[in-house]
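idk why but the lab printer keeps eating my pages so im just putting this in chat instead. protein + glycyl-adenosine-5'-phosphate:
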Amino acid sequence: MDELVALSKRRGFIFQSSDIYGGLQGIYDYGPLGVELKNNLKAAWWRAMVYERDDVEGLDAAIITNPKTLRYSGHEATFSDPLVDCRTCKARWRADHLKGDQCPACGSKDLTEPRPFNLMFRTAIGPVDDGSSFAYLRPETAQAIFTNFKNVLDSTSRRPPFGIAQIGKAFRNEITPRNFIFRVREFEQMELEFFVPAGEDEAWHKLWVEERLNWWEAQGVPRDRLELYYVPEADLSHYSKATVDVMYRFPHGLEELEGIANRTDFDLGSHSKNQSELHLAAKVMENVDSNTRLAVQDLETKAWQVPYVIEPSAGVDRGVLAVMNEAYRVEKLENGNERVVMGFKPHLAPIKVAVMPLKRNHEGIVNKALAVKQSLQRLGLGRILFENSGNIGKGYRRHDEVGTPLCVTVDFQTVDEDDTVTVRDRDTMAQERIAVAELPAYVKERLQA
Ligand code: GAP
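predcted complex ->
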């Protein structure tokens, strides 16, 4: 973990947030390479969940959430961790993270009894902060999928089985954020709420577990580094009938990467029930069924059914950490030196190709390298970097360390002789000469392999 943290800072993947002011605990910023890696991981999820399927729609809902949503979802009452205070040094801990009955900071045994601490962040809406108009920052992206269920249903004519996918920020006031970006207070989730007819839920649950394991494997996280944990009944969230956690061997231990829950008809049912009550109070019950009930009407029997929900919910930040951990390797070279390589899958690599002029001040070579960069950028594969440091050896080392799959060098032979460039492979370090005219097709094939 220490090596990943150091590399993240050194090369611009991840920084402590508000660093110059001493940081904010449990909050991180993604740097120039981190933002590319994170975007690539999210794009891979979106491709697999939305574009490559024919039964999922996308959504991008607001972060600031009406408190009623989180009241009827059960979060106001139950979304809490057991908090213990140390009376001696005033440190706060999650009771289930304590080893024994001592404060990990000062060793005192003078601890309070555990009490529930709600993890949701509150914010004030409008100019008057008198507590009357507050809202929450969403603790999961899922709720806005449920509250938009009818909007999506009506605007797309979908019928279960179908899903709604969303990627976005979530916020939790974790008592003890730790392990770099593993447990943080501001993070991103990639969540799918997959709506199925009651009775088909268990089969779909199994299927989604398999789908998700395959997806992680395609991101470079092998199956033998993942374990499935069937959450015991006593530990299930208030909405869940069954949850399977995908556990990954993080540098600090085996922990949850993604949770795949059978949320039953809990959320849609509970929001529908609340809507009915609201409308009853307003004496407009006649509108309840058609306008606000989060349910689907059987076209023949006209009966309403609240679908069941299977929810694969993955943390983007935990995904980034897992992918970085898998990619990281140190190799011994024949000359006795070492090289650090981030062996990202090409579709996740922050920089796809670095184009380097052999001489930084040679106009012909530099201009040619710029033109090559532009021709590759137009392929739309992601970021192509023009790297004009003039030191090819150092450039290779830097790009090994950030996981750039290919480096292209433009040299005298390119401009004076035959219009070919050197293409150097990150993993094998092999170099071959390729004609500039063939380079885009060559690069495309190599990166999409
Ligand atoms: N909608 C279901 C839900 O939110 P969860 O197990 O609480 O379920 C889903 O969270 C995923 O979100 C987790 O598997 C994890 O990857 C990520 N996650 C949750 N809390 C996190 C935190 N404090 N920091 C980073 N990621 C977190």
